[in-house]
Q: What sequence folds into this?
C-alpha cells in the first residue's frame, strides 16, 4: 500500500509539473530612458500577469547586459521602449546572432527609433521602417488594415487612441505587412514644437506591422507612449496578439 501511495504521489507530481510547464519564455528589455521610465513597473506587472494567465514566462531586464546571456531559451525578445541604440558592440553581435539563428522579436514604441539613422542599418531593416519625427501627442482614429492578424483581434475596426504618431521612412525598401494604420484626417500631423516640421505620411501611415527577417518573425507596434496604455485592455490585447504570433507563428486566419 505504501508503495502504491508513493507511486500515485509521484504520478500526480509529474502531471502537475507538466501542466505547469510554460508554453514559452520571453525576454523583455524594458529599461528607463529620457522620455520613457514611468511605464516600467506598470508594463512589467501587466506582462507578468498576462504570462500567468496564458502560461508563459516573462524575464524582465532593465539592463541591456541581459543580451550577453543564453538567448536561445527565449521564444522572442521584446524590445519594450528599449532601442538597439542602447546596445554596445558585444550586445549588438549577440542580438544579431539570435535573430539570424531564427529568434523572434517584438518591437514596441520607442524601440522603433535608432539614432543616428544609418548607424546600424541591420537594426533599421529589422524594424522595417526608420523614424523621422512625430507631432505632438494627439487623439486620432486607427483603422484595422488586417483583421486576420492576431494583434487586431482585441481592437475595433475603427479605434480611437491617443499617442505619438510616428512619421516613418523606408530607406532600405523593406516590405512590411501593415496591421494598423492611423487616419491622418482624424488629427493634425503638422502640430509640432516650434523649430520642427512634420508633414504626415498621407494615406499610407502604418502604426503596427509584421514581417519576416530570414526565419525570424518580427512584430512592430509604434503605439504605447503613455504609461496608462499598459493598463488598457485593448492595447494589451493588441500587444498580446503580436507577441503570440511572434513566438508561435500561429493565429493568422
A:
Amino acid at each position: 500500500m505504501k508503495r502504491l501511495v508513493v507511486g500515485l504521489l509521484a504520478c500526480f507530481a509529474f502531471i502537475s509539473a507538466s501542466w505547469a510547464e510554460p508554453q514559452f519564455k520571453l525576454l523583455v528589455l524594458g529599461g528607463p530612458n529620457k522620455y520613457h521610465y514611468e511605464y516600467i513597473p506598470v508594463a512589467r506587472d501587466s506582462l507578468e500577469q498576462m504570462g500567468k494567465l496564458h502560461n508563459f514566462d516573462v524575464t524582465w531586464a532593465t539592463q541591456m547586459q541581459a543580451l550577453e546571456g543564453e538567448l536561445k531559451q527565449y521564444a522572442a525578445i521584446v524590445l519594450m521602449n528599449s532601442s538597439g541604440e542602447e546596445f554596445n558592440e558585444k550586445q549588438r553581435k549577440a542580438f544579431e546572432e539570435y535573430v539570424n539563428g531564427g529568434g523572434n522579436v517584438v518591437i514596441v514604441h520607442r524601440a522603433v527609433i535608432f539614432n543616428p539613422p544609418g548607424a546600424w542599418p541591420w537594426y533599421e531593416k529589422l524594424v522595417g521602417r526608420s523614424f523621422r519625427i512625430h507631432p505632438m501627442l494627439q487623439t486620432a482614429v486607427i483603422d484595422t488594415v488586417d483583421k486576420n492578424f492576431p494583434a487586431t483581434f482585441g481592437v475595433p475596426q475603427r479605434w480611437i487612441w491617443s499617442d505619438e504618431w510616428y512619421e516613418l521612412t523606408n530607406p532600405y525598401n523593406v516590405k512590411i505587412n501593415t496591421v494598423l494604420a492611423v487616419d491622418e484626417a482624424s488629427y493634425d500631423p503638422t502640430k509640432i514644437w516650434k523649430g520642427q516640421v512634420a508633414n504626415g505620411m498621407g494615406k499610407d501611415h502604418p502604426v503596427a506591422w509584421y514581417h519576416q527577417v530570414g526565419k525570424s518573425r518580427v512584430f512592430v507596434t509604434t503605439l504605447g507612449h503613455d504609461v496608462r496604455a499598459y493598463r488598457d485592455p485593448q492595447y494589451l490585447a493588441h500587444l498580446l496578439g503580436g507577441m503570440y504570433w511572434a513566438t508561435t507563428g500561429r493565429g493568422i486566419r
Observations:
- The CA atoms of residues 20 and 55 lie 8 Å apart.
